[in-house]
Each structure stands twice: as C-alpha cells, then as structure tokens.
Amino acid sequence: MKILRLIRRFDREEAGAVTVDWVVLTAAIVGLGIAVLTTVGGATDDYGQTIGSHLSSQGIKTTY
C-alpha cells in the first residue's frame, strides 16, 4: 500500500509540471537561436571575408 500512496502523491504533485514547462520553453528558445544562426551565418561569413580582403589590400602608412 505504500507504493500506491507514493503513486497518488506523485500524481498530485505539480512542481514537475512547472519544470516541464521551463524545459519546453528553453528548448524552443535554443531551437530559435540555432535557426537564426543557421540562416544568418552564411551571409555573415561572406561579408566577413569581403571585409577581410578589403583590409588586406590596404597599405599601412608608416610615415607622416
């Protein structure tokens, strides 16, 4: 009967439901972040390479 009482108490406990909500919310935020980084990542890499090549072509003035 102790196991049955433990199961009933577990069924009435609501703290686990809040934890599940936070886990789902956190997973959604992480998924959204990954989607944004995947979408923007390629364009950012291309733009960074363009800036790098432009800066490489510039000379450094050592005298004034």
How would you portray this structure in words?
There is one protein chain. With 64 residues, the protein is mainly α. It has 2 helices and no strands. The chain has helices at residues 2-12, 15-57. The termini are far apart. 0% of the residues are buried. Keywords: Membrane, Transmembrane, Transmembrane helix. The chain crosses the membrane at residues 20-40. This is Flp family type IVb pilin. It comes from Psychromarinibacter halotolerans.
Main attributes?
single chain; 64 residues; mainly alpha; rod-shaped; membrane; transmembrane helix; transmembrane; Flp family type IVb pilin
Class from helix and strand fractions: mainly alpha
Report the principal-axis shape. rod-shaped
In DSSP terms, counting alpha (H) and pi (I) runs of 4 or more, how many helices? 2
Largest sheet: none
H and E string: HH
Distance between the termini: 92 Å
Detail the poorly predicted runs: none
**What level of helicity do the residues show?**
over 70%
What radius of gyration results from the CA coordinates? 27 Å
How many strand segments? 0
Could you tell me the mean pLDDT? 85
Strand content: under 5%
